[in-house]
Design a protein that fits this description.
One of its GO terms (biological process) is maturation of 5.8S rRNA. Monomer and homodimer. Plays a role in the recruitment of the exosome to pre-rRNA to mediate the 3'-5' end processing of the 5.8S rRNA. Belongs to the C1D family. The chain is mainly α. The chain folds into 2 domains: 139 residues, no CATH class; 38 residues, no CATH class. A two-stranded antiparallel sheet has the order 1-2.
Length: 186
Protein backbone atom coordinates (compact mmCIF):
# COMPACT_ATOMS: atom_id res chain seq x y z
CA UNK A 1 0.00 0.00 0.00
CA UNK A 2 1.34 3.44 -0.93
CA UNK A 3 1.69 5.90 1.90
CA UNK A 4 -0.37 8.88 0.77
CA UNK A 5 1.50 11.35 2.92
CA UNK A 6 4.95 10.48 1.65
CA UNK A 7 3.67 10.50 -1.95
CA UNK A 8 2.07 13.91 -1.37
CA UNK A 9 5.19 15.28 0.21
CA UNK A 10 7.41 14.32 -2.70
CA UNK A 11 4.92 15.81 -5.15
CA UNK A 12 4.76 19.03 -3.14
CA UNK A 13 8.51 19.38 -2.79
CA UNK A 14 8.91 20.00 -6.53
CA UNK A 15 10.46 23.38 -7.13
CA UNK A 16 7.67 25.36 -8.78
CA UNK A 17 9.90 27.72 -10.69
CA UNK A 18 11.81 24.79 -12.18
CA UNK A 19 8.54 23.17 -13.16
CA UNK A 20 7.34 26.22 -15.07
CA UNK A 21 10.76 26.70 -16.66
CA UNK A 22 10.51 23.09 -17.82
CA UNK A 23 7.17 23.80 -19.47
CA UNK A 24 8.46 26.92 -21.17
CA UNK A 25 11.68 25.19 -22.26
CA UNK A 26 9.68 22.37 -23.81
CA UNK A 27 7.48 24.89 -25.58
CA UNK A 28 10.54 26.51 -27.13
CA UNK A 29 12.51 23.37 -28.02
CA UNK A 30 9.99 20.74 -29.02
CA UNK A 31 10.33 19.87 -32.72
CA UNK A 32 7.49 17.40 -33.32
CA UNK A 33 5.68 17.33 -36.64
CA UNK A 34 2.19 18.79 -36.48
CA UNK A 35 -0.29 16.09 -37.40
CA UNK A 36 -3.54 17.23 -35.84
CA UNK A 37 -5.76 20.25 -36.11
CA UNK A 38 -5.46 22.72 -33.22
CA UNK A 39 -8.58 24.41 -31.81
CA UNK A 40 -7.08 27.86 -32.30
CA UNK A 41 -6.56 27.37 -36.04
CA UNK A 42 -10.07 28.68 -36.68
CA UNK A 43 -8.89 32.08 -35.41
CA UNK A 44 -5.59 32.13 -37.29
CA UNK A 45 -4.84 33.73 -40.60
CA UNK A 46 -4.24 31.24 -43.46
CA UNK A 47 -0.50 31.94 -43.58
CA UNK A 48 -0.18 31.16 -39.85
CA UNK A 49 -2.22 27.97 -40.29
CA UNK A 50 0.30 26.78 -42.87
CA UNK A 51 3.38 27.90 -40.91
CA UNK A 52 4.85 24.70 -39.42
CA UNK A 53 6.91 26.57 -36.84
CA UNK A 54 3.82 28.40 -35.53
CA UNK A 55 1.81 25.17 -35.50
CA UNK A 56 4.61 23.40 -33.57
CA UNK A 57 4.73 26.21 -31.01
CA UNK A 58 0.95 26.17 -30.59
CA UNK A 59 0.85 22.39 -30.25
CA UNK A 60 3.53 22.50 -27.56
CA UNK A 61 1.66 25.32 -25.82
CA UNK A 62 -1.55 23.29 -25.79
CA UNK A 63 0.21 20.17 -24.51
CA UNK A 64 1.88 22.22 -21.74
CA UNK A 65 -1.48 23.67 -20.75
CA UNK A 66 -2.90 20.13 -20.59
CA UNK A 67 -0.06 19.07 -18.29
CA UNK A 68 -0.71 22.12 -16.10
CA UNK A 69 -4.41 21.27 -15.97
CA UNK A 70 -3.58 17.70 -14.93
CA UNK A 71 -1.25 18.99 -12.20
CA UNK A 72 -3.94 21.37 -10.99
CA UNK A 73 -6.50 18.55 -10.85
CA UNK A 74 -4.09 16.44 -8.79
CA UNK A 75 -3.40 19.35 -6.44
CA UNK A 76 -7.11 20.08 -6.01
CA UNK A 77 -7.75 16.38 -5.31
CA UNK A 78 -5.03 16.45 -2.63
CA UNK A 79 -6.58 19.55 -1.13
CA UNK A 80 -10.00 17.89 -1.01
CA UNK A 81 -8.63 14.82 0.82
CA UNK A 82 -7.61 16.87 3.88
CA UNK A 83 -4.95 14.31 4.83
CA UNK A 84 -2.00 16.68 4.57
CA UNK A 85 0.07 18.01 7.43
CA UNK A 86 0.08 21.75 8.04
CA UNK A 87 3.42 22.17 6.29
CA UNK A 88 2.25 20.17 3.27
CA UNK A 89 -1.00 22.17 3.18
CA UNK A 90 0.98 25.43 3.13
CA UNK A 91 3.08 24.15 0.23
CA UNK A 92 0.00 22.99 -1.65
CA UNK A 93 -1.84 26.28 -1.13
CA UNK A 94 1.23 28.23 -2.23
CA UNK A 95 1.54 26.04 -5.30
CA UNK A 96 -2.12 26.55 -6.22
CA UNK A 97 -1.94 30.33 -5.78
CA UNK A 98 1.23 30.51 -7.86
CA UNK A 99 -0.26 28.26 -10.53
CA UNK A 100 -3.51 30.21 -10.77
CA UNK A 101 -1.76 33.58 -10.80
CA UNK A 102 0.66 32.39 -13.47
CA UNK A 103 -2.16 31.06 -15.63
CA UNK A 104 -4.01 34.35 -15.27
CA UNK A 105 -0.81 36.23 -16.15
CA UNK A 106 -0.47 34.07 -19.28
CA UNK A 107 -4.09 34.80 -20.17
CA UNK A 108 -3.56 38.55 -19.79
CA UNK A 109 -0.39 38.43 -21.91
CA UNK A 110 -2.25 36.48 -24.61
CA UNK A 111 -4.93 39.16 -24.60
CA UNK A 112 -2.21 41.74 -25.26
CA UNK A 113 -2.67 43.59 -21.97
CA UNK A 114 0.12 45.34 -20.06
CA UNK A 115 0.51 43.24 -16.93
CA UNK A 116 3.32 45.27 -15.37
CA UNK A 117 0.84 47.33 -13.33
CA UNK A 118 -1.85 44.68 -13.00
CA UNK A 119 -2.79 43.22 -9.60
CA UNK A 120 -1.67 39.77 -10.67
CA UNK A 121 1.96 40.93 -10.42
CA UNK A 122 1.40 41.73 -6.74
CA UNK A 123 -0.07 38.25 -6.21
CA UNK A 124 2.87 36.63 -7.98
CA UNK A 125 5.44 38.56 -5.96
CA UNK A 126 3.64 37.75 -2.69
CA UNK A 127 3.54 34.09 -3.61
CA UNK A 128 7.24 34.09 -4.52
CA UNK A 129 8.03 35.67 -1.14
CA UNK A 130 5.89 33.07 0.60
CA UNK A 131 7.62 30.23 -1.24
CA UNK A 132 11.04 31.70 -0.42
CA UNK A 133 10.07 32.02 3.26
CA UNK A 134 8.78 28.44 3.32
CA UNK A 135 12.03 27.22 1.75
CA UNK A 136 14.04 29.20 4.30
CA UNK A 137 12.07 27.66 7.18
CA UNK A 138 12.40 24.12 5.81
CA UNK A 139 16.12 24.58 5.19
CA UNK A 140 16.56 25.81 8.76
CA UNK A 141 14.66 22.79 10.09
CA UNK A 142 16.71 20.39 7.95
CA UNK A 143 20.05 21.95 8.94
CA UNK A 144 22.30 19.79 11.11
CA UNK A 145 21.95 20.42 14.80
CA UNK A 146 24.46 19.98 17.61
CA UNK A 147 23.59 17.09 19.90
CA UNK A 148 24.18 18.80 23.24
CA UNK A 149 24.16 15.61 25.32
CA UNK A 150 26.76 13.95 23.09
CA UNK A 151 28.90 17.10 23.09
CA UNK A 152 28.82 17.18 26.90
CA UNK A 153 29.89 13.53 27.04
CA UNK A 154 32.81 14.16 24.66
CA UNK A 155 33.95 17.16 26.67
CA UNK A 156 33.62 15.33 29.98
CA UNK A 157 35.57 12.36 28.61
CA UNK A 158 38.35 14.59 27.33
CA UNK A 159 38.80 16.88 30.35
CA UNK A 160 40.85 14.37 32.35
CA UNK A 161 43.49 14.22 29.61
CA UNK A 162 46.25 16.80 29.99
CA UNK A 163 48.32 17.83 27.02
CA UNK A 164 51.95 18.93 27.16
CA UNK A 165 53.94 20.78 24.50
CA UNK A 166 56.89 18.58 23.57
CA UNK A 167 59.10 20.36 21.07
CA UNK A 168 56.14 21.96 19.30
CA UNK A 169 54.01 18.79 19.31
CA UNK A 170 51.05 18.44 21.66
CA UNK A 171 51.10 15.05 23.40
CA UNK A 172 49.31 13.66 26.41
CA UNK A 173 51.00 13.88 29.75
CA UNK A 174 51.28 10.08 29.82
CA UNK A 175 53.08 10.05 26.45
CA UNK A 176 55.35 12.89 27.63
CA UNK A 177 56.36 11.04 30.82
CA UNK A 178 56.98 7.83 28.84
CA UNK A 179 59.18 9.75 26.40
CA UNK A 180 61.13 11.31 29.29
CA UNK A 181 61.73 7.87 30.85
CA UNK A 182 62.98 6.49 27.53
CA UNK A 183 65.40 9.40 27.08
CA UNK A 184 66.77 9.08 30.63
CA UNK A 185 67.40 5.32 30.16
CA UNK A 186 69.57 5.97 27.15
Amino acid sequence: MVNKRSHCKTKLDVNIRTRFQFYLKNMAQEKQPVDEELPCNAYLDASLQEDENMQRILKTFYSSIEVLEADMEKALALQAERTLTTNEQIKLDSYLVYLKSTLFWIYLKLQGLDVSKHGVMHDLSRTKELLARDKEINDALAAPRLDMQAAKRFIAAGTHTRFVDMDGVMVTEKQYNKSLQETTKE
